[in-house]
Amino acid sequence: MARSSRYGMSALRPLYGDGADSFCALGVPPGVSHKRHFPRSHHRLGWRPLSVERDSRMPIARRATIEDLESLLDLFRASDVSAQVETIEQARDIWRRTITQAGVTVFVSEAHPKIVATCMLITAPNLLRQGRSHAFLENVVTHPAHQGQGHGRAVVEAALAQAWSSDCHHVLMQSGRADPRVHRFYERCGFKPGLRTAYVARRPL
Q1: What 3-state class would DSSP assign to 153?
Q2: Within a domain: residue 202?
Q3: In CA terms, which of 157, 159, 179, 195 is 20 to 30 Å from 171?
Q4: Is residue 4 part of a domain?
């Protein structure tokens, strides 16, 4: 059974949920050493202090399974995202490879019986940063009818908890959205804008 800490994280199952720069995730308040503010044993488990206590009414994120494909596709259809794959056969093949790919974890949050939020965490080994891994956050989506209910934050904070427990140096993400509410959401989740400059190379036509 998962044990919740007073910082709002679970040792065994990440909890929590919502609200054209590159962002770098920080798990502790700016300028504050986590070593001075919570026990070393918590640090080994990948816990990080949050600025708020966990509300038991908040949604709980979980890892996606192979059975979640149809519900995820429904979520994407209802949301403002880029074009999906065209056939269900292609979607099944891609999803099977996604679920079994080392270093890739998809998180979801549900408003039963539907998945209403998701994100993907990608980690990669690294010879620099004292051997700590890279982590990237992609495909962050919350159903328009369920925004502001904690589901988006649930999946993002679950991904961050996974990254810290995997000894990642940081979590990087990019957002092409101009809506300032989107940027405020990521900042509330712990991302800091402007620490890096993002560059994008598009596939040649």
Answers
A1: helix
A2: no
A3: 179
A4: no
Residue 112: the pLDDT is 83
Nearest 10 degrees: Cα torsion 142, 144, 146, 148: 80
Per the structure, the complete domain to which residue 54 belongs is given by: 22-195
Number of domains in the chain: 1
- The answer to whether position 9 is within a domain reads no
Q: Which tens digit of pLDDT belongs to each residue from 101-123?
A: 999 999 999 998 899 999 999 99
Q: What is the DSSP string of 9-65?
A: -BSSS--------EEEE-SS-TT--GGGTS-HHHHHTT----SSPPPTTS---EE--
pLDDT tier at 78, thresholds 50, 70, 90: very high
CATH number at residue 138: 3.40.630.30
Q: How far is CA 68 from CA 52, 72, 73, 117, in A?
A: 30, 6, 9, 12
Report in angstroms the alpha-carbon separations of 194 from 60, 179, 183: 30, 16, 12
How buried is residue 11: exposed, middle or buried, by Cβ count under 10 Å (0-12/13-18/19+)? middle
pLDDT band at 55 (very low <50, low <70, confident <90, very high): low
